[in-house]
Amino acid sequence: MAESLKKENEALRAQLKKAQEQLEQQAITIKQLQEIIFGKKTEVLEQVADGQLSLFDPVDDLNLDQEITEVVKTTTTKIVRHRPAKKQLTRQEFLDQLPQVEEVVSLKTTTCPDCQQEMAHIGKRLARREARLKEPELYCANLYEESYKCKHCSQDGNDKLVTSKAPMALLPHSYFSSSIMAFIAYLKFNLALSFYRQESFVQGLGLPVSAKQMASNIIKVSQTYLEPLYQYLSNTVRQEPVIHMDETPFKVVDSPKSQDYFWVTRTTKEFAQHPVVVFHHANTRSGRIIGQIVGNNYPGIIMCDGYKGYSNQLYPQAKFGSCLVHIRREFVKLVKALPKTMKASKAQQALTLLSQVFHSENQLSYQTANEKLVQRQIHVKPLMDKFYNYISQISQPIGQLRKAIQNAIQLKSRVYRVFENGQLPLSNNSVEQSIRPSTLIRKNCLFAKTEEGAKANAVYYSLVETAKLNQLNVQRYLEYLFDHLPESNCQDLAAFLPWSKNVQEECRE
């Protein structure tokens, strides 16, 4: 009897423990859903001020202070991998760089208010300076070709006539000149303004074109002039030994699939020959699309997330890195859902260790990829080892913590590729930043009607985002392309790349 009661008690205790764990996981799930719906869209956690101890963070158990001290002593604070921040102009400097227009406020009468005699002008003084905006305006440009006749040849009875040649029109006999097409493309692909919203705007300026005409001509210009340049950018990405890659959903009405995708590749911020972003439209998320983008025998390293489509079974010659920010994100979700009394959780301690990894990486000083690799192996690898040793020693994790740990351990070999190649970054943030503008366009414009339209979207996204990475004025660059590509017959495409000398001189921001 006593033995059966004891077994029943143990069974009830186990059942109660399991129920409590389920309740805790449900509470965490509810908190995560609340964060998704109502919370701030950030992965930055609350930080304790320097010199202040946390009540809920047993740092001593991990002996973290000693490790941080050692790192600080063996690294420098010089960071060479970031582009210098652009100087913020004062209001006076900003006004000085604008075209200057003088406006003189004249007296209503120049007679003296006392003696009624004519007064003499003695000068003027500056009352104030202000920036003003001039509304876009339409005008008709009449292009004439000049003709010349050689009088000397005429004396011999042979009239020699030489006539200048006007540049070819982008779309002959159309409302869409180079400047108008560049303006429309700029509004759509840089400012995320849909064609239907543009329609009322341009018609208000007096231009009688519809949203449907805009869309069809955007596609026509892409197919006629821009696709060869787009292919050139794609080839440039394929030649890089390390690239970023990610994918984002996109709706195409006429597609046989319910969901299409843009696959996006980008060269690395450091050590790449040129900064390039390329969007590729596909009606599937299958990993076989990777071969269409970089080739089935791509020998380099692809920085990506943990999506199973990035598979060595499909591409045995390629190597895949894994984004450490995605691994960190799983722990962040868990910590943000925990009550304050549990901020000393194992997930929080794992985040503390990961923060040391990122901090150490940001403090490295180097000039080449090999120098960076050596610095990483000295300063970053011990911290990465410490993180993985810690999470692998956590016994019987449950729920979201187990999922986060399993994800990190599963991707460990890919994460450690950063200690094989100095050009490989720790995260895939760069390509995600390039994708972000397209998500805003998707939100405003909703979909593409045809697959041709989706492909044209990919072409324009690629040119616009690459132009921005090369510090170009996007509208000016598009107009430059539309002015000169018809004349070139798509020859010498290198002259139209965002980093070419002429383009930089004409279109730099």
From TrEMBL:
Keywords of the record: Coiled coil
Q: Which Pfam families match?
A: DDE_Tnp_IS66, DDE_Tnp_IS66_C, LZ_Tnp_IS66, zf-IS66
InterPro entries of this UniProt entry? IS66_C (IPR039552), Transposase-related (IPR052344), Transposase_IS66_central (IPR004291), Transposase_TnpC_homeodom (IPR024463), Znf_dom_IS66 (IPR024474)
The answer to whether the entry has keyword Coiled coil is yes
- Please state every residue range assigned to the domain named Transposase IS66 central: 173-455
Coiled-coil stretches are 2-36
Look up keyword Iron and say if it applies.
Answer: no
The Transposase IS66 C-terminal domain, residue ranges: 462-499
Where is each Transposase TnpC homeodomain domain found? 29-102
Ranges where the Transposase IS66 zinc-finger binding domain occurs: 110-153
Q: What is this protein called?
A: IS66 family transposase
